[in-house]
């Protein structure tokens, strides 16, 4: 899979408007076994309670069955287990979705594919959940803008409920700009619509991508690339009478402007 992904990187770089039509075959037995091994040990389990270690006891048989369901289009992710964690500097709690281990494997494989394609499109202003980029890198460039550039305004923005309010229709439309593989889009759509379990009751998910899902960070980055990063780059910067910059880490962003916008 790694060799094929490298080839996709080359094509994505050289042809920025290229749509990839055949990707689901990359979720084969070899690549999914690797995804299983790369997932961390001793993590919280989903609604079935299957641990990585338990799944690995019959790994070959489980993966063969998983690939068969993916090929026949009968694979459906299990609803995630909803739990809540404390929100930083707040009395409120943040919802977290814990997928089944098998679904984590598929999400891991999809994440590799999406990163390979979309990483070439993302702008330099975004730093969250990207290879070889960290919050420290975001702070460094932000300090550079503030200390070395003339600054009139600094705007600190936290998008309220970003992960919870992603519009599924627009999410798929953004993915379609680079992906024309209906099978892969169908699987992603099923993850988005997979629902969650809380106190023994299943709830539908008509919007949002659950925090805690392996594939959620890259989906959020794709979404925010189109609705925020490109909007700022192509519209806001052109309207400003002077320089304007934005630094985004996941759903937190800071923009600085030298002079007022028109």
Automatic annotation (TrEMBL):
* Residue ranges of every copy of the Reverse transcriptase domain listed in the record: 66-262
Q: Which Pfam families match?
A: RVT_1
Keyword Transferase on entry: yes
UniProt keyword annotations, A-Z: Nucleotidyltransferase, RNA-directed DNA polymerase, Transferase
Q: Name one GO molecular function term.
A: RNA-directed DNA polymerase activity
Q: Indicate whether DNA-binding appears among the record's keywords.
A: no
User: What InterPro entries does its record include?
Assistant: DNA/RNA_pol_sf, GrpII_Intron_Splice-Mob/Def, RT_dom
What PANTHER family does this protein's entry cite?
NUCLEAR INTRON MATURASE 1, MITOCHONDRIAL-RELATED (PTHR34047), PROTEIN YKFC (PTHR34047:SF8)
Q: What is this protein called?
A: Reverse transcriptase domain-containing protein
Source species: Metabacillus herbersteinensis
């Amino acid at each position: 899979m790694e060799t094929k992904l490298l080839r996709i990187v080359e094509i994505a770089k050289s042809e920025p408007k290229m749509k990839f039509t055949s990707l689901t075959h990359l979720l084969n037995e070899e690549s999914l076994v690797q995804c299983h091994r790369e997932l961390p040990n001793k993590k919280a389990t989903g609604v079935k309670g299957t641990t990585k270690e338990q799944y690995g006891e019959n790994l070959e048989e489980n993966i063969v069955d998983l690939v068969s369901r993916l090929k026949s289009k009968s694979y459906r992710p299990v609803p995630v287990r909803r739990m809540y964690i404390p929100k930083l500097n707040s009395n409120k709690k943040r919802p977290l979705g814990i997928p089944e281990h098998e679904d984590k494997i598929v999400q891991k494989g999809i994440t590799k594919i999406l990163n390979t394609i979309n990483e070439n499109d993302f702008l330099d202003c975004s730093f969250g959940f990207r290879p070889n980029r960290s919050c420290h890198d975001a702070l460094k460039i932000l300090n550079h803008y503030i200390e070395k550039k003339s600054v009139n305004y600094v705007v600190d923005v936290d998008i309220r409920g970003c992960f919870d309010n992603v519009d599924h229709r627009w999410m798929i439309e953004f993915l379609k700009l680079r992906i024309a593989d209906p099978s892969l889009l169908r699987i992603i759509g099923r993850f988005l619509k997979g629902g969650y379990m809380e106190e023994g009751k299943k709830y539908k998910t008509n919007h949002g991508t659950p925090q805690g899902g392996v594939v959620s960070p890259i989906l959020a980055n794709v979404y925010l690339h189109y609705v925020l990063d490109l909007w700022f780059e192509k519209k806001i910067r052109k309207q400003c009478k002077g320089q304007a910059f934005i630094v985004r880490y996941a759903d937190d962003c800071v923009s600085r402007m030298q002079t007022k916008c028109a």
